[in-house]
Design brief:
Helices cover 54% and strands 12% of the residues. The protein is an alpha/beta fold and 238 residues long. The protein has 2 domains: 130 residues, Rossmann fold (3-Layer(aba) Sandwich), CATH 3.40.50; 83 residues, Orthogonal Bundle (Arc Repressor Mutant, subunit A), CATH 1.10.10. α5 crosses α8 and α7 crosses α8. The longest helix is centred in the middle third of the chain and has 17 residues. The radius of gyration is 18 Å and the shape is globular. The protein starts with a helix and ends in an 11-residue tail after the last helix.
Length: 238
Amino acid sequence: MEGAAQRGRRVSVTSIVLVHAHALFREGLRHHLSSHPEYCIAGEAGNGQQAIQIVDYTDPDLVLMEVDLPGVNGLEVSRAIKRAHPHVGILLFSSGMDGQHVVKAIRAGVAAYLPRNIEWPRLLAVLNDVRRGDYPINELVISLPEVASQVLAAFRQMVVDEDTQSIFSPLSLRELSVLELMAAGQTNKEIALRLDISNQTVKNHVSSILRKLAVNDRTQAVVYGMRRGWIKVVLPGD
């Protein structure tokens, strides 16, 4: 009965490109994903250049990629992919949760930054989040104090070092409120409850923010706002 019910339901398939220098690692991911019909492997790559070419050719929904790739590293590949394919959700594997690398990942538009030894159930949960358009990397910044402090320090330094243009914000007060809650990693539903507005109104505000700031996604909007001092990340103990 369960099998018949599953066959009766139409499964929306999410395509994935796997990028890792070691074929055995890619094989392990492919093996685990093969038991989930909502995912399919669109291609594989062993280095950064191959990854960019395969993503250009297959235009997948998601990319699972190692940071430490031979040649062009995962962060550089992420920037290249997001420029050409802003809709692609990127999940990066790293040997450590270094705050500086997390900052670079956020700026590159990466959706999730994960330890290499992540357990499969947790990875699957993150995959599902990114598949829905969420950015678990925001939760990482909030949940790990040692990472959060490095990220916040780096963003503050960016305000000093980089072109801040102007403190004037083109966003309305309500849009700034939405942007601040986005920076705290809250979903549209949570923002709607917090501001006592409808989910559709939140979606409209998010679309307006992205359009006004000329960015492709929520993470880039948050980075833009923090760089210009319009919003800040509120950390535990701050």
